Amino acid sequence: MSTHARAVEPALITIPASDAAFREHVHNIVPLTTPRELETRLRRMFPRVVVRERTISGAPGWYVYRDGAWSSSLIGNWWDDPGLPRVVVSEEGWFTEANRTAAGILGMDEDEAKSHHFTDFVVPGTLDDSMGLFQIIRDGKTLDATLVIRPLTGDAIAVDLHSELVGERIVTVFRLAKDVDVPTHMPPVGHPTDIAYVPAIDVAFRLYAQRAIERMPEATPDGLAIRLRRLYPHASVDEDGEQWTARRDHGDVEASTEPWWQADDLPLVRYDAQALIVEANAQAEAFFGRSMVGHHWQEFVTPGSTDQVGVMLEILAEVGAAESRFRMPHGDGRLLEFDSYTEVQGEDFITLFRQARVR
Question: d(Cα 18, Cα 24) in Å, to the nearest integer?
Answer without folding.
Answer: 11
